[in-house]
């Protein structure tokens, strides 16, 4: 069942989303070669604590960390660790804040130092895919109307879209209905409704869309070892169009 949110509830999610955005704004300042994803993990814990928020993923299933830190061929759900990031790495930091019982969820890919041309293009195209998905998330459209242009944009640039990890409704729970992947057919799937709050979180790969999971049960990697990037926002569907609840610009 899809639980539609009132304007007041959407403001609660926006408040949680603002904490996630604050985390990303701090992460951006510290990313450089030599920094470890463990230092980013600690930064996120500190920023959330400063807002009286809770890092939701620390108690989600058997996940133990405040962040997912996914480097290069890791698509999603990598564990933060003590390996220094190096020049040219792509690192995706995904984090979920809980504030007053409501959740905000956003992932962002960062460039470590100077990127190769292909990594730079992958990062740019992936952000464009998120923006395309959001732009088409309007009342009157179905999910396929938004995901079709998203995955076509990846393909037109020679990239592929992960099909085995989904986006989701969000609110008091991290994974609410609806559930969908970032590949779609125009006119197919659920209709966008006023008061829906969902994530859009395309994971775009340099090579194959196929993935494998490490023995830790979480770390999702590209099957071919090539790069992956991801940008994720939590958004609300309103009469006035999609509203980004994890926006970093203010
Ligand atoms: N953005 C992720 C998601 O959509 C956040 C959860 S990460 C997890 O599921 F590792 F905790 F699962
Ligand atoms: Co998510």
Automatic annotation (TrEMBL):
Matching CDD domains: MetAP1
Annotated GO biological process: proteolysis
Any single Gene Ontology cellular-component annotation: cytosol
Cofactor note: Binds 2 divalent metal cations per subunit. Has a high-affinity and a low affinity metal-binding site. The true nature of the physiological cofactor is under debate. The enzyme is active with cobalt, zinc, manganese or divalent iron ions. Most likely, methionine aminopeptidases function as mononuclear Fe(2+)-metalloproteases under physiological conditions, and the catalytically relevant metal-binding site has been assigned to the histidine-containing high-affinity site.
GO MF term list: initiator methionyl aminopeptidase activity; metal ion binding; metalloaminopeptidase activity
Pfam family membership, one: Peptidase_M24
Keyword Chaperone: no
Cofactor(s) for this UniProt protein: Co(2+); Zn(2+); Mn(2+); Fe(2+)
Residues binding a divalent metal cation 1, per UniProt: 94, 105, 232
First-level EC class: hydrolase
The protein, known as: Methionine aminopeptidase
Species assigned in the record: Cohnella rhizosphaerae
Record gene name: map
